[in-house]
Design goal:
This is Core Histone H2A/H2B/H3 domain-containing protein. By secondary structure, the protein is mostly helical. It has helices at about 45, 50-60, 70-80, 90-105, 110-144. Helices cover about 50% and strands about 0% of the residues.
Amino acid sequence: MAGRGSRPSGKIVRKAPVRSAIRPNRQAKFKSGRATKAGRATKAGRATKAGQAAQASTGNIRRPRRTAPGKKALREICYFQRTTNLLILKTPFARVVREILLECGMDYRIQQSALGALQEAAEAAVIAELESKSDMIISWTTLI
């Protein structure tokens, strides 16, 4: 006679998993006892090198084409020259400006239009500096 907290007599029954109400289309964890053969190699392919060569030749795996060195950089330069949006993100730039203003003294307030003008001027200065450096590099490579 089984008591209230005792174990049931007989064989142990494994309960089927309950399907989730959140994701009803999800497969049950213990649906079947067998594993699928999707990730396994065949016996012929596993046994010999000839089988491996046959498997490699029949596959349609193509490596991606390699781009020439510097081609991606040139593509990015052309993209950024075409676009008119700002290169520096607005919130980090505003954070740096406010940090500099705090170092100067009192707690200053700054308008959004003033931040935009500062950012435009800063980007123009950075771009001018980088252009002069690239011209210098080009002239040095022709001399060497």
